[in-house]
Amino acid sequence: MTSASNVKYAIAMIAGLAATGTAGAADLLPPPPLPEPPTIHVGGGLYLRGYIGMTNQKVGSLDNVQFATADVTWVSEPGFDASPLFGAGIGWTINNWFRVDATGEYRGRATFHAMDIYDTNPPDSNIDGSNEYGGAKSEWLFLANAYADLGTWHGITPYVGAGIGASRNTIHNFTDINTPNAGAAYGATKSQWDLAWALHAGMGYQVTDRLTIDLAYRYLDMGDGVTGDLIAYDGTNTVYNPMHFKDLTSHDVMLGIRWNFDAPEPVMDLPPAPPIYKH
Question: Is the per-residue pLDDT at 23 higher than 60?
């Protein structure tokens, strides 16, 4: 090997050793810092809620002891006009999937109306008279509710839920006008408590970390209601015969807000796996 070749070989060996030393030093350096993962805020803890809405109520049937002695046909089915409702509650967000609350609400007076015709001797098929009914109904409703939040998309969280509690059902100023027979009766305003239960569906829109706007539908069963004893217009009565309102239900639409008092809980995404450096 010539002198020139020896020089070139020595230079190549020195360059290779230098490259190997640089790679080894790189292996000993700490990895670069990882970027901070994004933070997602979810409401947590105590919240208050308030809401307003409208009712669409129904009664399953009317019952009176005197119905047993006549064949009654409804010309105008028993029903209620729409009425407003106002409610408030306090709740607790357990996690970003489940929350509970307790609510109390006043359901405003819904006007009642119905009309029947009756035959007191059904085999003869003759109509003996008619009754036109009037009055109103209101409630105080108290429910304990549980909700499942179904995930959040663009700040909107749909949910479903159920509730159970009690309803104080009041029938106001019930009247029974029998025009063909020039008769009239009235029942005093009366209230009674009954079991109530509800099914919920809705969505919340998170305006801020603390404020959520809530649009909801609710199916509500309030049990039964009853009037005072029906007294004839002249003050007479031969039998105790209050009018019973069976199976009071309602389809409610509500708009409200929820205000979260506790600071939102930061939920961190898992960081990516650290890079692997091969030696």
Answer: no
Can you give the residue range of the structural domain that contains 101?
Answer: 44-263
The pTM for the full model equals 0.77
Structure tokens at 219: 């199916």
Report if residue 204 sits inside a domain.
yes
In sequence order, the 6+-apart residues with CB closer than 8 A to the CB of 71 are 118, 119, 122
Provide the CB-side half-sphere exposure for 244 (13 A, CA): 12
Question: 153 in a domain, yes or no?
Answer: yes
In angstroms, rounded to a whole number, what is the distance separating the alpha carbons of residues 143 and 29?
Answer: 63
| φ/ψ of residue 66, rounded to 5 | -80, -10
Q: Which helix (H) or strand (E) holds 136?
A: strand 129-149
Report the alpha-carbon distance of residue 70 to residue 119 in Å, rounded. Answer: 5
Instruction: Output the domain CATH number for residue 190.
Output: 2.40.160.20
Closest CA relative to residue 227, chosen from 265, 172, 264: 172
CA distance 118 to 178: 11
Structure tokens at 20: 């190997």
Would you say residue 26 lies in a domain?
no
Q: How many structural domains comprise the chain?
A: 1
Instruction: Look at 89 and 44; give whichever has higher pLDDT.
Output: 89
Q: Is 180 left (phi over 0), alpha (psi -120 to 50) or beta?
A: alpha
